[in-house]
């Protein structure tokens, strides 16, 4: 099966204790697409300006990511600038929507309702618009961020009725639900209609909630994290990408999908930008999957 | 084998969003001893005042904890008062050392160098004094807290040379080492002489570091936490108590010991005080051990 991903494509300027990088490849759709592309065929739906470096287009193409849905508009690509004083907290210095301002995506004809859909983090109105145009019959997943919970909570909650798998981080789950306890937060989100919920806790791992399954997974233990940007998007892409290739979804497969999300996210934070993530190879992923098992196994 | 535990015995007054309890049974040696007593024979070494309620003495006795090393001194039992506005952070309102002031423990003759020793969280000078008097031949474990790192870092670090297993929380590991990264923190502590290091992350689980083994374990997922007091002490007691009963220590056994520490800590935080923890039965522990496996297992 295939997976269509809508989200942002950005040129990020990021400063962490390990250095500063200017205009590197970023955005939720990039991290998710690159991550998912290790497992399934990805259709990327987004927009860039005509300043978008050709080397990045070539890289996406080389990864087998279908970019016929990546519109090139006259103007500047979306820009995000942030600084991490410590690695747990991004301080946004600048956000320039640029070509995203008033963006109304066209759905290219090769994207049909048959495949899965990941609404990566972006304005929920845009997520809803895409959902309505595609009317997907496969698994629908959705990610978000604090900004949209503050600005467009109602739109987001309306969207949740249509979502099979909703991913967000712990702070966002508390913000959305008004609860301090993640169990209560998950219950609130489930009441809004999401069938499965993943609460991401960064370096502390992830929680999964559905009526049939509760599952906890720690994060992969890394000696060094250089840039946490995109970790959550990468997790989402890895998890959903893995699921897109399965004939059916059951407990075991959901657990395994979260393991792959975790592994991909661990690669994402070891270096700066989406381009580094694209350089990971399948062998390294399989190797780390095994290391993760050794790192966490306690069963006989 | 047996396990001797030195630490504090206290009457705690604790307020959390779930209520306020006055003069309940607490202290590092209580949580550790009760927890360890599910697995091994425990000798408690500490001091209380003559105001210490007899019902607590009876309870300890009923749990099979040997209290011949629990001195009763004229005066008041150690008191600690704290408030949790949210469950992640205790705000200490009062600490009265009382009978601990100038306490010099006597080692009763039934405590020999043969067994294991847990130096539960207390003044490192007292920990060192006990270590010197017992000269234990078994496993020596040690816990601590931020206060001692601030006030008696040198004494604590000197003690680490004699310690096989050192347990502390993530903030304390960073404070002690001056590092932000837990890998670096563990390295610092290992350089000081501790052979095995457990870094406790509260609701986010625990990390284990030794030259031969790295291991991560999430915490047990609870619907409700009523009072986090003593969670770390309970973890230590459960882990070390389990180890005390093993003929040898290897990777598999260390992992399993951490699982039991985690399970016992999960019971400790579900209710107020050490008395509630004592009411847990072995059946419930075994049941939760199985639930924990289901909650975290992703291997085929």
Architecture overview:
The structure is a homodimer of 300-residue chains. The first copy, chain A, has a single domain, classed as Ribokinase (UDP-N-acetylmuramoyl-L-alanine:D-glutamate ligase), CATH 3.40.1190.20. The first copy, chain A, is globular. Chain A starts with a strand and ends with a helix. The model of chain A has no long low-confidence stretch (mean pLDDT 96). Chain A has eleven helices and 13 strands. Chain A has helices spanning 28-36, 54-62, 124-134, 146-151, 153-160, 170-177, 182-191, 231-244, 251-268, 273-278, 282-296, and strands at residues 2-6, 10-16, 19-26, 41-49, 66-73, 78-84, 90-96, 116-119, 140-143, 165-169, 196-200, 206-209, 214-217. Chain A is of the alpha/beta class and 300 residues long. In chain A, the strands form two sheets. Chain A has a nine-stranded mixed sheet with strand order 5-4-1-8-9-10-11-12-13, sandwiched between helices. In chain A, strands 3-2-6-7 form a four-stranded mixed sheet.
């Amino acid at each position: 099966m295939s997976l269509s991903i809508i989200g942002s494509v950005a040129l990020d300027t990021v400063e962490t204790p390990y250095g500063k990088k200017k205009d590197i490849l970023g955005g939720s759709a990039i991290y998710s697409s690159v991550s998912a592309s290790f497992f399934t065929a990805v259709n990327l739906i987004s927009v860039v300006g005509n300043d978008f470096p050709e080397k990045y287009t070539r890289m996406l193409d080389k990864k087998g990511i279908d970019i016929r849905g990546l519109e090139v508009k006259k103007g500047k690509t979306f820009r995000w600038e942030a600084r991490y004083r410590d690695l747990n907290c991004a301080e946004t210095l600048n956000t320039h929507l640029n070509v995203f301002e008033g963006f109304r995506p066209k759905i290219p004809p090769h994207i049909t309702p048959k495949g899965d859909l990941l609404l990566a983090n972006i304005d929920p109105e845009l997520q809803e618009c895409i959902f309505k145009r595609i009317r997907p019959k496969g698994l629908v997943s959705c990610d978000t961020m604090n900004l949209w919970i503050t600005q467009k909570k109602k739109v987001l909650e309306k969207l949740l009725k249509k979502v099979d798998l909703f991913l967000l981080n712990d702070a966002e789950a508390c913000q959305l639900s008004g609860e301090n306890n993640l169990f209560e937060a998950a219950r609130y989100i489930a009441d809004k209609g999401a069938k499965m919920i993943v609460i991401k806790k960064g370096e502390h791992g992830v929680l999964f909630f559905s009526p049939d399954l509760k599952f906890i997974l720690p994060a992969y233990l890394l000696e060094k994290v250089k840039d946490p940007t995109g970790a959550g998007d990468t997790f989402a892409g890895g998890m959903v990408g893995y699921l897109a290739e399965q004939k059916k979804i059951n407990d075991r497969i959901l657990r395994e999908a979260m393991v792959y999300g975790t592994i991909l996210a661990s690669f994402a934070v070891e270096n700066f930008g989406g381009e580094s993530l694209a350089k990971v190879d399948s062998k390294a992923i399989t190797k780390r999957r095994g290391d993760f098992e050794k790192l966490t196994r306690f069963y006989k």
